[in-house]
Every structure is written in structure tokens, then in C-alpha cells.
Amino acid sequence: MRINKSTIMLLALFIVTTYSCIQKEEEKSAAEETNFSLTYEKFTLDNGLEVVLHEDHSDPMVAVATLMHVGSNREKPGKTGFAHFFEHMAFNDSENVPRGSNRKVIPEWGGSRNGGTWSDGTIYYEVVPKDAFEKILWIDSDRLGYMINTVTIEALEREKQVVKNEKRQNYDNVPYGFTSEVIRANLYPKDHPYNWTVIGSLPDLQAATLEDVKEFYNTYYGPNNATLVIAGDIDIAETKKAVEKWFGEIKRGNEIADLKPMPVTLVETKSLYFEDNFAKLPELRMVFPTVEMFHKDQYALDILGKMLSGSKKSPLYKEIIAKKMLAPRVSSYNSSNELAGEFTFQVRANAGTDLNTVKMAIDEALKNFEANFDKAQLERIKTKQEMQLYQGTESVVDKAFALANGNVYANDPAHVIKEVDFTNKVTKEDVIRVYTKYIKDKNYIMTSFVPKGQTDLVMNGAIKAEVYQEEIVQGKANEEVGQGAEAQYEKTVTKHDRSEPTFGELPLFKSPKIWKGKLANGIHVYGIENNEVPLVSFAITIDGGHYLEPKNKAGLANLLGDLLMEGTAFKTSSELEEAIEMLGANIRIISRDESMIVSGSCLAKNFDKTIKLVEEIVLHPRWDIVEYERLKSSLLTNLKGREANPRTIAYQSFRKLIYGDDHILGIPSIGTAETVKDISLDDLKQFYTKNISASVANIHVAGATLESNVLASLKSLGNNWKSNEVKVPFYELPKQDKAGKLFFIDFPGAKQSVIYAGKLALSEADSMYNNLEYTNQILGGGSSGRLFQTLRIEKGYTYGAYSYLQSLEEKAPFLVQTSVRANATLPSLKIIEGLVGDYAKDFNENEVVVTKNKILKSSAKDYEQLQDKIGILMLISKYKKPFDYLEKEQKELVDMSLDDFQDIIKTHLQEPEMFYLIVGDKETQLDEINKFGKGEAIELDIYGNLRK
């Protein structure tokens, strides 16, 4: 996958790390005064590999991250996208690890794995139960030192197709997907390393050769250009020995000179437009060149972005959203990378909005900013740091990312200490200075992306942007790929045996200790005390949600949740936002199919004050007519925008086919344009009065606080939240008469086809639900599943393919989902049909063993963070599960026999009972899929209705 450097930076920015050496007293940072630390030890192997170790025994798991200091910034014009492409290649074979193991066996060991590439680096990472730790060192060291001899032309061609599918899925087949390409090509000179996107161009990828791969590896993949971080349940001394054994013999690579900062300036403003085949809404972006990361101005620019758009009092929000109602949201942000930086304004406007009016509103907002600097907002932004600091250290993989990032880019794993200080020291004068220096009256790149045929909305004077667009030809021969034979080579001689190591001692997962209390109004409170970080997460579930809405006003609960967060009877919308920010807390309300959830997190010391705000939000709505009208307008805009996403269209239409027109679950929980337009403020009030009741509420708390403290903080809510009877409507499930049928939705010009296949299966309340989830693991449970292994690894048709069972109290669907290259639609359908149809025949004793290992050993990873623990509590309260249900379900899994798995397959996973839905380009695909053997496709519109 591709990740922006800022993503890694965000993970690292607020982590406090103590040096293993003693710091001078005058260097002590404000962040250290929190008494929170993350110790580490660093050493360097003779071959130049820098290693950072962090010991954390809170969970029996280990994260391993290898950060290579090479991203797309090392590429050359004509060979773009190569760093990301090589990341894909590196996950294939190596000399001592069997073919396919890298992607397949790690999930089967109970772990997770992935990689990411951005402009300035490439990272590979795994999280595994501690018993598989040395196996990961074996795999990672073999990838770093012994993979290049195994690369074949066949593997190269297959991975090209995978990367091209990734580009289609995330760029070419989505609205605004070409925006970054247009901006980079015009912001940076042609010879600048940021002139192209990380994914690169399709012609460059197609032209890549085996020699290119080998040259890239030999140039940049030496251990002396890498940092290895190991974080988790390890012994430092033993880990040092293991690292030396597995990585020490790898040959040192070329010496790679550091790139120097390459900030750019623009001699003129450039305005470009593009007619987007998929967009439904016009979008304006303005991008100003700024500074590289760690530049002294970066921190003030980061804060400037938050001040301009990060709150309801910010000038962009007030002008564009509140006053002129031109868009549902606006964002501004600084992104500083290794060589240069960018400051971006982004507005996706309401349908039909002239982008010239948006630009005028931005200009007016900036004038207001200059005249009315909000110093209080500056302080609130800084207040959030402590919260973000702890949230960035909950998981061992987050810690690994942060330590690697600091080591590679600042030559100091503990550099985040200084970053927290630098941000804290930003003054009003600093923010004004960087605004004047980089934004005010400066040149920029501006893009107007508008729906096809709506060029009247583009900025005056904009010129048309040129973008390469791939043409997919049906049956194109060179896109039929396969794994091919394994490479023939002479294996590298090593001092140490590089055979697969054995598992260590199996870590046993135990359910966390759970307590249960009760408030005066009868609300049950479920809790888990966990003191790893000084945070508390909470969730109040209110049964009902979407399920309680009138069908003709679907989306009502969603809109109500949004409105409740826009002020209380005692606080305006901006005052409520400020109160939450001053606590460094997060609070949100969402509506789901069967519930509304008031959730959030806060510093443990602020839990009592945060809950007081939650009580005010839930019990004392403001019913602000202005905010209601703004939110409704925003929702209608968002619904219009969703029409541009083929995956959203497929999912919503699949659900409609499952539940029909007469069941509430056949309508999206967010609503439709038809159902939302008639929702009034009175409708929201009536829904609130009837359904927001203590009688259907449960509270869940996990974190660094005692049961007694939680119950004391909730006492007022227990006394003041009244109960009334909530009537849940009954919906009869429609006759499931679509088995064996084929449905098609036209998405003109689609480079990919979205495929959904499935059937109605089980309620989560059903005793067989867990067994069906277990049984699905071999078929579609992640990258080790047969769907992924066949459609992506063997055929190169897709970027990913999965199957899963939805979680509902109502009977829920089992579904298969993927997005495939358009001209591979028919063969992909046949593969899905075959894999599901032959599942019982192919599921044997080996699959039983793999399934049990995969699920049992992943438990510690799956329940590591506070939100995971909240999830445990919510399942207990909703389905009345015993506190130790996880252990009971694990025992149930252990006791399952091959016959049990076969019974599940034959009862719930029969392919003839499934139907298929495709969203794709009708002109090229409809005739093809009619050859599938399911009869002639039934055509639907983008809302899931029969086409007339």
C-alpha cells in the first residue's frame, strides 16, 4: 500500500521516548513532565543495520518494523512508482522462505503484516504472538538479504497487474483520484523527486524489467540503509543475539548519500481544471509550497492549518460552512516531508456550486483570520497534545513506527520529545509570521475538479489539466499472468542455518477482568481496568438507531446524532467544542443499523469532567434550527457524493437485494436523498423523546480508572436520565428468491468491476454464528484466504478479495467482496463460483488445524487496544454473553471437528444459494458476464432499483 509520510509522522509525533543515556536537566521537555516514557535500546550491526529495541510485557505479542530509507524520491522520470512496486515484489519469494509464505503463513500464525511506501521511505511490518517472533526475524531478514535471486519475469508481470489494480481501485476508479497527480506535476519541476505520485504512472510500471528490480535492490536495499525496530514482549539480551544471528551475515550495501532539502518556489499561480468522470461534486484545492520536516517553521505551519479550519470558530468554517453554506466541510493542513512541504486548502462543495464563489469565500476567511487572531484556539490545539501522545502509544506497532521514524529521519529515535516541545513553544507571532511568509499573497497551484459536463463551475481562467488515462481492452493478452516456475539459482552460502525456526512457547490469551455495576435508573455499566496508558475510552450504546426510523425518513437517527453534537441547552456549538478541546477529549455520536453510540476517549484525570459533558449532550439538546439546516444540507451533499463511489453503490444495492424495499435494513442507515429531504426538526425531537431512553442504554468503560471512580462519575447520569418504553418495530424478512441470479449496475468508464456475492446467513445471536466465522477463515479471512491467494497472488486480477459475515442481531448476510480489473470480470466470477462451490470438498483436516491456529493465536493482537476492550464489553451487553465468553468460544473452536466445519459449510456456504452483483462498465462487461451461466443479468440503477 502507499502511505503518506505524514501518516507515519502522525503516529510518531506525540510519543514520548526517553533516552537510554542521561539527558541534561536543561533539555528536559514539557512532555517528560507527564512521567510517561517509552524506553529503548539502540545498537548497530557491523553491516550497518541500525536496531532499536523496546521491551513491553503488557501483551504476549511482538511488532517488527523494517524501515528502508528509500521512497519515490529516489526514482527517476520514466521509472516512477518503482519504490512502491518493489515493496510489492519484496513480499514474494526469498531464498530460504518458501514461495507465498510471506503473505500466507503470518496470518495463519495469528499475526498481521503489511507494508507501506511514501515519498521518503518504505516500511515492512508484522505483529505476531510472541511464539512466532523468531519466525518473523527469519522472514524479514531473508527478505532484506536474500530475496533478489528468487525474482522471476513471471512474478514481475503478475505483481505489475496487482499494482495496476491498486492504482485503478484507489486513483483511477474513484472521484478526484487524479488530483494529486495534477498538483505534483505543476508544483514541482520535472526533475524534482516529488514531481510524480508514489504510485507512479502505468506506462512506467508496465515498462519495468527484471534488471530494473535487481538494480533497485542492489542500490537501496542494503542493511546500512535500514532501521529495524522490535517492540513488545521480548528479552533485550536474547533479542540482540537473535538479531545478530538472522541479520548479521547480510552483506553491507552501497553507501547512500542523504538527499538535501529541496523546497520549491512558484514564479506564478497556476489554475487547472479537470472534468472528473466519477465526481458528483465540484472540488477546489489550493496548494502552497512550504518547508521540509524538522524545519523550524514546520510546527507553526502545522498549527496554522488547524487554526484556519479545525474548529467551529475557525475562519474557514465560519465563512464557507456556517455563513455561506457552500460545502459540508473544509480543510487546511501543512504536510512537511523530507525534501519539501505543502500547505493545502481543500473544499468539496455542494452540488452545482461555482468554485469561483468558494475561492472568494476562502479569501474572505483569510482576511478575517488576519484581523481576528484567536489566541485561545492556539492554546486549545496545544492542549490536545497530551491526549494524542498517549493514543499514539497504545499498540506495539505504533511504538515501532515512531521509533523507526525518529531514527531514520532525525537520527534519533527520541526526536519526538523535541517535537512536542517545538509545538508547545509556537507563539501567536510565529503563526502570523509563517502565514505571511508562505501563504499571504504567495503563488500556488489551484485545481478545479468538476463532474463531467460541468465546466461552467471551474475557476475563471483555469486551463485544462492533462492526465494519462488507461484504456482497458477486453481480453488483452499481456494481462493474463500467473506465478510461473520458481527461479533457478545457486543459494547463498551462510554461516548460520537459515531453515525455518520452531515456534517458541505458546502464549495463552486470558479474558480481561470485567466488572459490572448498575446506576440508579437501571443502566448497566460494564468495565475493564487497564493502566497501560493514562487514558479512558467509553461507549454508551442506545438500542435502536436506524432500526427505529420510519422507512420514509431513514437517516433520521444519523442526523439526530450529528445535531446533538452541535451544542447543548447551556452551550452553543462552538462553546461545546471548546469545552471538549480544553479537556483534550474526543466525543462523538454515530448511528448504526441497530443502535446509537455515544463514544469517546479522554485523559484518565479528566474522565469525570468528560462524562459531565456527555450527560449535558445527551440530556439537554439545543435544537438549534440553524445547525439543523446546515447539517441537513451537508448530509444531502454527502449523499450526492456517495453516488460517485462504485463500492458504496455495490454495498448499498447488495443490502437492498438482501432485505428488500419493506425492511428498514434495505435502506442505508445514512438515508437517501428522498428520505432525508422530508426530515424536519420536529421529527428529530419526536425521535429523541421516544427513543433516547435509559431503558435501552448500556455503558462501557475501559482504561486507567477504578470501578468506584467510574460509578461515581456516572452517578448524576444515573439520577437524571429518565426511562420510557421503547417500541421496536418488527420487520419480516423477505423471501430469499435471488439464489443463482446475476445483477448488474452500469458505472460508465469504470476501469474496475466491483463484485459482491452472497446470501442471508445468521444473526450474531445465533449459536452457530461464531462457528460460521471460524469456517470462513480459509475461504476469505484476509491475505491467507483462498479468495485473496487466487484472485490476487495467482492471477493478479485484484488488489484484494475477502469474504465475511456481518454482525447484526437481525439475520445478517454472508458476502464475498472484491474489485477486479474490468477485463477480468468474467474469469473472476468463475473463480469465486468455483472456490465457494468446492469449499466443502477442499476443506480437510489441514484446514481445521490452520483455522484453529490462526484464530487462537491472534487473540492478544485482536484485543490489545482500549477500543478493542470496549468492543468486548459491547458484545457482552448486547448479546448477554458471559464475561469469559472469549475463552468459552476458544474452547468451542478447539473442540470443533472436521465434521463440524463441513456441516457449517453445507448448511450456510452453499454457492447455489448465493446471488451475484457487479458494478462496472456496461459497454464492455455486460455481454461478458452474461456468459457466466447464471442467466441474463438483471440491470439495476445506482440505487439498487430495477432499470426501466
Task: Offer a few descriptive terms.
six-stranded mixed beta sheet; globular; Cytochrome Bc1 Complex, Chain A, domain 1; disordered N terminus; alpha+beta; 948 residues; 4 domains
Please explain how this structure is put together:
It is a single chain. The chain is α+β, with helices and mostly antiparallel strands and 948 residues long. The protein folds into four domains: 56-227 and 239-258, 2-Layer Sandwich (Cytochrome Bc1 Complex, Chain A, domain 1), CATH 3.30.830; 270-464, Cytochrome Bc1 Complex, Chain A, domain 1 (2-Layer Sandwich); 515-720, Metalloenzyme, LuxS/M16 peptidase-like (Cytochrome Bc1 Complex, Chain A, domain 1); 742-940, 2-Layer Sandwich (Cytochrome Bc1 Complex, Chain A, domain 1), CATH 3.30.830.10. Helix content is 40%, strand content 17%. It contains 34 helices and 24 strands. The strands form four sheets. It has a six-stranded mixed β-sheet with strand order 1-2-6-3-5-4, sandwiched between helices. A hairpin with a 4-residue loop joins strand 9 (330-336) and strand 10 (341-348). Helix 19 runs parallel beside helix 24 (707-720) and helix 26 (786-794) packs antiparallel against helix 27. It is globular.
